[in-house]
Design a protein that fits this description.
Strand content: 25-35%
CATH topology: HU Protein, Chain A
Number of domains: 1
CATH superfamily: IHF-like DNA-binding proteins
CATH architecture: Irregular
Strand order of the largest sheet: 1-2-5
Structural class: alpha+beta
CATH class: Few Secondary Structures
Number of helices: 2
Helix content: 25-40%
Order of helices and strands: HHEEEEE
Largest sheet: 3 strands, antiparallel
Distance between the termini: 19 Å
Radius of gyration: 18 Å
Number of strands: 5
């Protein structure tokens, strides 16, 4: 699902314009990014949790040349759905 299709769905449900809904989607995603950056975890009740995880430096290889290289450590964002995620009515 793209941001635009999400905004279109919101628009149909709320009666707002697609442009206004798209702005809300952008603001929501920005708020999620900011919160995870500041706190390393964001819990949305009856939905799930976003959290960060550090992927350690590791040895990898270039699939084209077979050359070995070091992949630097990086921060990843993960999502864990609430156990009732699919059964919760919105």
């Amino acid at each position: 699902m793209s941001k635009k299709s999400l905004a279109t769905r919101l628009s149909k449900k709320t009666g707002k314009s697609v442009a206004d809904s798209l702005e809300l989607v952008e603001l929501l995603f920005q708020a999620i990014k900011e919160d995870i950056t500041e706190t390393d975890r964001l819990v949305i009740r009856d939905f799930g949790s976003f959290y960060t995880s550090l992927q350690k430096e590791r040895l990898g290889r270039n699939p084209k040349s077979g050359e070995k290289l070091i992949i630097k450590e990086k921060l990843k964002v993960k999502f864990k759905a609430n156990p009732n995620f699919l059964t919760t009515k919105i």
